[in-house]
Amino acid sequence: MHRSYFVASLFLVILHASPITPARAEASKTHAGAAEAIVPSVYRLSPSDDVQYRLQELLISAVPGDVIEFDAGLFQFNRQIDITTDNLTLRGQGSGKTTLTFKGQLSGGQGIEATGNNFLVEGLAIEDTAGNAIKVLGARNVTFRDVRTEWTGETLATNGAYGLYPVQCRNVLIDSCVAIGASDSGIYVGQSRDVIVRGCRAERNVAGIEIENTVGADVYDNVATDNAGGLLVFDLPGLQQKSGRNVRLFRNRISGNNHVNFAAPGNIVAAVPPGTGLMILATDHVEAFDNDITDNQTASILLVSYLVSGKKVNDPDYDSIPEAVSIHDNRISGGGTKPSGEFGLMLSTLGTPVPDILFDGVVNPERLVDGKLPDELQHSIVNNGKARFLNFKFADLNPISLASGTYKPERDVSVYSKPRASLAPISLADHDPPTKLADKTVLAYRAAPKRLSEFGLFEGNGSTQQPVAGVVPYDLNTTLFTDHATKYRFIRVPDGASIGYTDTGVLRFPEGTVIAKTFAYPVDGTDTTKGERLLETRIELIEEGEWFGYSYQWNDDQTDASLLLGGGEVNVSWINEDGEHLSNRYEIPNANQCLNCHSQNAAYVPIGPTAMNMNRDYDFGDGKANQLDYLAEKHLLVDLPPAAKRDRMPVSDDPSTGSLNQRAHAWLDVNCAHCHSPQGTARTSGLDLRFKQSDPAKFGLWKSPVAAGHGSGGRSYDIVPGEPDKSILLYRIQSATPGIRMPSVGRNMVPTKGATLIEQWITAMPKDK
After folding, report:
1. Is 407:397 a contact under the CB 8 Å cutoff?
2. What is the three-class DSSP state of 504?
């Protein structure tokens, strides 16, 4: 069913949620100097057909200190919710009373994605998201309290990867939460610092609770039961934050974690043997004590290196071997009675029950002094009651050694009997007080023109996309795929101002520059006289040194477009130039989605207009000219170097413009690198797809997936040279399924030309022998 939510005024939408205070009404009249006039407010939402857009608009207009409360009941969402504001609270009436369901989600990689500091979620449930339930990226002071995340059906590989997912965050508190049915980890804390997970329950996940590449975490008073693995502490390669350490695990009940491992093959968690209680992999300085670990049928405790995963490591800075782990004063019983998985079955040949504490025996030979590890690096395993120990010597364990009788594990734990000093408790810093009541973005959204025509960019009503004098059309060598839409691009620079040339990143646009991009579909691509349908025009505007982005939806009469901060969708059909009848549920992004995709270190940055990508010819009406030369001749661009010294990005689908390798990198740069770069919102994956990234490990060769979930497609590496059908990168480009497809927003259809190019590129890579 077609549903398009059209905004005439932001404040009419807010009226549906709660009254506008006089201070807020006054603040809407001005941009500069309005911060003192705005005060935080509490808004109340009840279930409704348009709650998707009502909530998103509230989040876009939110100021630090705002609270959004949900009534008891079931709230239905079909798109990802995006949050960027600091000091924001989402509050329900209790995780058993207020439920936000994403069942049937159509777009987005998460249920909720947040980037603001001092973020609090409490008293609600998130169910059946296409990907992760709640992801918080790069924030300080994150609190989840009484939050339930759940996939309500069967435990399937197609469930979302993570329930609660703070990543690259600092000062994280996860308190009294419940996580059920995640295909990776119910509660997952990655690449973060200073974390407390307490009083939570995780069940029927692949991994109940996982702490990964994290420095400083206390995990206590939790229950992990009926997962494949109960509690995991991992350190993985290829990520920005390495060398996780200083993790304490205590007073947890880790019981009966014997669920089938339903993770998609290729993910590291898929290698966790079902029946694992506590697993410590490659992480240094971990202390596990005062835990009840019972009835885990493969292993009560696994202490292992990354080598047991069987995966290649293409990260020279990664330390795959755990050191200085202390396991003491735990109550362990009933484990190892029915080992499963390939690993468990091999150990079961030694007899059952399998010993309680299993160590792979791997040490770093470069750390040995006189054949032994120094005391400061040695493990300590003491005072664990009657728990039995086994150093199963992973390097020697194989079917041949088992069959021949040459395999000789060690069962003497006395080597590890020297206690280690306890790790220091984690203390979370006080939350930062709000330093401002409203930032420039909120004020800019409120002051934004409500109609596209107010910008004065086009002749007449704009339906012909004919720019007025002073507005310069342009094009790009390689373009972002947006469901086959035609795009018209324009730049307007203020009178007397000029663009500064730079050969890296986006050109240096002067204050007041407007960049516009209109999206359209032809009525009939075989007959251009029938015209086209304009869908939206996106505006990027730089004010006071910061960029802001807005979307305007064209009306049915094609006479103007209206501001649409909360996003929307339009069902559209057309005939392409090959005579094919196509249709699409075209999505107009909400303003926070724009910020997420365009974010570099949390600052909005345009994606397309770089010197490399604009270095091409364009017909400005009196014959073709190089775009950069044209802008320089019009005194709109300064510091332009000679043509011979300018880089040019190839046209991805034109072999005459570059090699296969160059064109593939160009396509990935434009379509993926705005997120997959060291400052982008997908930086946590460690995948860097910028055009000039030449390190194969960083652009994906033999790189294991992180947080891919069922997006791995059962494949083990982002790129397997010469094997496109084994490469996750291609799988996600070829997919149109929410939670799998990449990019996760901005498209519903498959970029067939781009996918073919990437397939050819991977095929041409020499296979490793």
Report:
1. yes
2. coil
